[in-house]
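Entry 12.
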Amino acid sequence: MRSPPVNGALFRLVQNSVLVFGAAMAFAPMWPIRTAGQMADAFKVQPGQIWGCSASTAACFPASSSVVQRAEKSSFRWIPSASRGHDTRRPAVVASNGANGGPAPESLLAQGRVDEAISSLQLELTSIPTDADSFNLLCRAYLELTKWDEAIESCQEAVTLEPSNSSFHLWLGRAYGQKARHAKFLSAARLAKKVRDQFEIAVRLDPTNREAHADLAQFYVEAPGIVGGGKDKAEEQARELATLDPPEAAIVQAWIAEKNKDLAAAENHLLAAVNLSGGQAGTWLSLAEFYSRTGQPDKMQDALDHALAANNHTRVLMKAAQMLMGSKRNSSEAAQLLRQYLSGPTVEQSPAFEAHYLLGTLYEKDGNTLAAAQEFRSSLNLAKAYAPAQKALDRLRRQMASNLAQP
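Predicted 3D structure (C-alpha cells):
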C-alpha cells in the first residue's frame, strides 16, 4: 500500500497556501526533506571516482576498483504515489537500451544513478527531441535533485507531446507541488491550483489510474476550499478507489477521519487497509506513520516490525529507517535497515544516494567520521548536486581542519 507522497510536497504546498488564507493545517509531513556537500582537496568527489579511507592516518583517497567496489544495484522506482509503499508497481527490467547501449534510464533512476540517468536522457533527446517518455523521466530525475523549475519544464514538454497521457499529467502536478513547497505564500496558492488541475486531468484521462485518484484525494483532504480542496471531494475519490484498489480506498478514508480528528476511526481504516492488502509491507508502513504522527511510539515500532516481516518488505526498508531516525528510536536498527537496503535492489522512490546520505548521518552521530565521509562521497558519486551530502562533507572537512589545528 502507499503512504503520502515521497517528500510531503503536497502537505507543505497546502501549508503554504493555508497561511495565505489564514486557515489552520495540522498534518505533519511524512518524509524528511532532501538536501547535499564537499571536504578538503582529499575529500573532493570526481564523477565516478571511488574512494577508500585509512583508519590509521585519518585520510581518504581515491582507490582502484580492486580496492573499493561500488555495488551495481537495480530495480524499479516508484510511479508516483508509490512512495505510499504500494506493492503493485511493476519491477524495472535492467535493459541495455540506454543512449550508448548502457542501462536504460529507468534502471539508472532505480539504482539511484541520477547523474548518469540525466546524461543518458539528454543524449537521447538530442537524437529524438519528441520522445515524451524521456522528458517524463528527465522530470523525475530533476525532482530527485530538487530542481523544481527544470522538472516542471521537462514534465510540461512530456504533456505537450502527449497531452492524453494520464501519468504525464500526474507527474506534472507533482512537480508543481514540489515547487510550491518552496514558494512564497501567494505563489504557493497559485501553484496549488495547478496541482489540482493536473491531478484532475490525470483522473479524467484515465479513470483507472489509482495513483492519480490517491494523489487527488490527498489534495482534496489537505487543501483549503479556496484552492479547490474539500473532504466531500476526497470521499468521492475514495468511492472510486473502492473498486480499483480497496486497501488504498481505506487509507484515503483514514486521511479523512484523521482530518476530522477522529483518530479511532482513522486507526480502524488503516487496520482495514492492512487486512484488505493481505498484510503488505506498505499498508503496515502507513499504519506505522499514523502511530508516529499521533505520538504512539510503541505501536509504531510494532507496525514497523510487521512491515519488515512482510514478504515484500525490501521496498520499505529506507522509509522504515527514516521513521526510526525521525522518532529518535533505535538508530542502530535504522543503520542496519539502510545497509540492507543498499545491499540489494533499490527503488526510484527511495534513491540510493539519499540512503547513503542517511547512513552517513548515523555514522557521524556515532562518531565514525571516516565511515560517514565514505557514505557522503558514495551519495555524491551518484548525484553530485545532492546538497545535503555536500553540506555534510563540508561539515566534516571543517571538523577535520579544526582537529588538525589543535596543538
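Annotation: The radius of gyration is 21 Å. Strands lie at 51-54, 59-62.
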